[in-house]
Design a protein that fits this description.
By secondary structure, this protein is mainly alpha-helical. It is built from 6 helices and 2 strands; from the N terminus they run ααααββαα. It has 2 domains: about 1-60, no CATH class; about 60-110, no CATH class.
């Protein structure tokens, strides 16, 4: 991370954005990572923005409203069918139920396409 930030600065970029997943492999939270970068790159001003906190005050888009309605209908229909302990989600633009045990099991893999785009956009 530090090498990447240094390369960005040397290439003339005045700022960088680092995205950290909640369950990172290192086991550190974003505030520990902030402290680490500040301690090793004193010329950087580091700020933490928690996406969930930023999103709470925003206005929902049309897509957000339609998705929320679809998910709500699916959740109620599932309960009326006696299905409990499921998470409602969107898979291939269709409402889907996933057992809660499966939803929280294991770790998700990084989307390599998004990682590639991120690399392109930051170099």
């Amino acid at each position: 991370l530090l090498d990447s930030l240094r390369r960005s600065k040397q290439s003339g970029k005045s700022s960088s954005i680092v995205v950290v997943a909640e369950g990172d492999k290192i086991g550190k939270n974003v505030f520990e990572l902030k402290d680490y970068v500040e301690a090793n790159m004193t010329e950087y001003e580091v700020r933490v923005s928690v996406l969930g906190h930023m999103q709470r005050g925003g206005s929902p888009s049309c897509f957000d409203r339609v998705l929320a309605s679809r998910m709500g209908v699916k959740a109620v229909e599932s309960l009326l069918e006696g299905k409990t302990n499921y998470m409602v989600g969107l898979i291939n633009d269709e409402m889907a139920l996933t057992p809660l045990e499966q939803a929280v099991k294991g770790k998700s893999k990084i989307n390599l396409e998004l990682l590639r785009v991120s690399d392109i956009m930051t170099t």
